[in-house]
């Protein structure tokens, strides 16, 4: 399942990370106490960007799901898996950056 989700996720990961990192930088790249207050808005920003990607894929490339449907995965399963993977990846990188900036 993970390899299928990774294959699906690499279609749009750059756009989603650009939106999320831009949102983090737009609020001043908080790393101190205000960092905790930014986790919820970043989550909602990522969820909204996934909604836009889902809408665009439903509108312009519905046949792109045929490969995954032949493997037995629905578009909902793919998006939920990709969203979980993206959240883990983004917040792990964000935490690592925060720790590095606080240490140095």
From TrEMBL:
Top-level division of the source organism's lineage: Bacteria
Keyword set, alphabetical order: Membrane, Transmembrane, Transmembrane helix
Keyword Transmembrane part of the UniProt annotation: yes
Chain segments annotated as transmembrane: 12-32, 38-57, 78-101
The keyword Membrane belongs to this UniProt entry's keyword annotation: yes
Annotated protein name in UniProt: Uncharacterized protein
